[in-house]
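Support request, please re-run this one:
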Amino acid sequence: LGTAAVGAASALAGLTVSASNYADDLITTSTNTHIATEDLQKYSYALNFIDGDMNTLTGTMKKNTQIMSKARDGNKTYTAAYEKLGISITDANGELRNGQEVYWEVIDALAMQLLGKSGTELNTIIDAGSEAFKDLGNEAEAMGYVMSNEAVSALGSFNDKLQQLKAGMTGLKNSAALIALPFLDDLASKGVPILAEFSKGIQEANGDVSKMGDVIGQGLPLLM
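Re-run finished. Output below.
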């Protein structure tokens, strides 16, 4: 029972570390793409069943948000493209709408012209459409696949502490090395000529075991 408990505790610790690494990656991606961690998890789950790529998905989402801003600022090409698709990028107050909502409307309208060359990499996502992602996202949430923002933040904070601990351990090892440095430095300084004489004596013994024994007997005390 004791061995089983230790094994279970070790496995649980490993799972926690793994989850903290996953959470840290989620937080980084969320910061870079401005997509909520919960949404990223839903997309990740959906992409297990839809042959798409997360980097392509998040990259084109970010690009769509940038294009929305350019269209609002007067870019005629982008403005015309959204109008042709029947998609409004602003709300009743003239403010930009949620980028993800607009993105999925673009996907459903098969708007390759807005997303450029990367649009060709979105074929499977376009074929699936927003409803498939929504349904699979709901399924992921129902299965407990999606961690809350609070849980992700807690694991991310734990991961930061692990990184600090690793850095501290590296510093400790380097500091500990300084303790033995004077002795080893002295040994290295004295050892080189002693080992040279030791090697020379062994060679000059020409295989004579008795002479080699004498060389070893004389050399060892000098290295102590």
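The radius of gyration is 32 Å. The chain has a mean pLDDT of 79.
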